[in-house]
Amino acid sequence: LPLNLNVSQPNLANWCRGEGLDQAHAILVLGVSEEEEISTVEETLEQVKTLGKVRVRGKFFDANNQTLTMLCECRQEVDPTKVPPEVISFREGGKWKIVVAEQETNSDLFTEKLDRFLHDEGKTLEDVKRLCDPSTSWNSNPESIIRAVGDVLQSKPNESQSYRNFRIFSGVHPTPPGEDNLDSWLEQVKFMTDEYECSDKEKRRRIIESLKGPALEIIQAVRMSNPMANHMDYLQALESTFGTSESGEELYLTFRAMHQRQGECLSNFLLRLERLLNKVVQKGGLQVDEANRARLEQLIKGATESDFMLLQLGLRDKRNDPPTFLSLLKEIREEEEREAARQKLKKPAQRPHVHAVQVASETDSKGGMNERKRGRERKKTKGEKRRGDSKQQRAT
């Protein structure tokens, strides 16, 4: 029988499926004598070093050849290029044929590796196919494929230049002016890296550019311990170092204790609730499908400054079918705008201001001037009268 008979390979696949074996660790041995011991078969096959330890998992009788066919499990993964076409029995000297699973074609392996490489670079096979020569087949011209891959990767730096830089984070507390705290920085970076159509290497570079001080030292330590770390490993290291050490359950208890601050509008209180609720869900303190109900219940419980608005919106009646965050925020802000408009209409019209004080002051000033003038005239009259009396006495 020739090596790796195609007719025997389906038997190997079906038999492995029935026994629950991995084809990559299985072989068929054909032409074994009925008198051959199983231990002898295993010892003979173990002489083929590439197979490792061998164990017979099953056998059946081949009526055409009057021999046994055995299914064997190998500890090592079977490499068809290193397995001999036949082996010779120790005792009887007979030749046994070996059948292995069909090896994956080189084109399939190449496509798989190319797909994995492009995925790491933020590209797809479709990007490469669009740049290939239309007159050539996709799998038949490796040179065309390699050229297309080079064109795709070469275009990436130009595309990445249009991306917005991340804000600065150092991990210093309190947060210095011009920098973000951890929560704000992580929120921005996670959102933008999800939207970026660039390689993981480019994402790592942009993260490193936005770090300084203790935060940058943490990433340097991560790179030394794990040179293959991706951008998510960087973010997880920063979050575990500078983030809160509270568990999801502890954060949930903190969330349940939140209340509206004095003078705080209801929409701002909702935003504070949402920020902490997101952390609770991320830490596993609450299931995603329970977030809407928890948000509404805590808003009703903690809104001590907005009882009338809760009544106006009818939020207590929506507990069985709680709205989403965006829907709830929209309702509250619309009601706040209506309330602001009502308060504006209630304010009385301003009366024109009359400078009564200034007018009175001017009047008093004029009166004072007249009084001083009359006083001077009285003094002048008295003086003239005294002079007249004096002249009359001298004449007498």
UniProtKB/TrEMBL annotation:
Composition bias, Basic residues: 343-354, 375-385
InterPro entries noted in UniProt: PNMA (IPR026523), PNMA_C (IPR048270), PNMA_N (IPR048271)
Region (Disordered): 338-396
All copies of domain Paraneoplastic antigen Ma-like C-terminal, residue ranges: 169-329
Domain Paraneoplastic antigen Ma-like N-terminal: 12-99
Transmembrane domains' residue ranges: none
Segments of skewed composition (Basic and acidic residues): 363-374, 386-396
Protein name, UniProt field: PNMA family member 1
Species in which this protein is naturally found: Astatotilapia calliptera (Eastern happy)
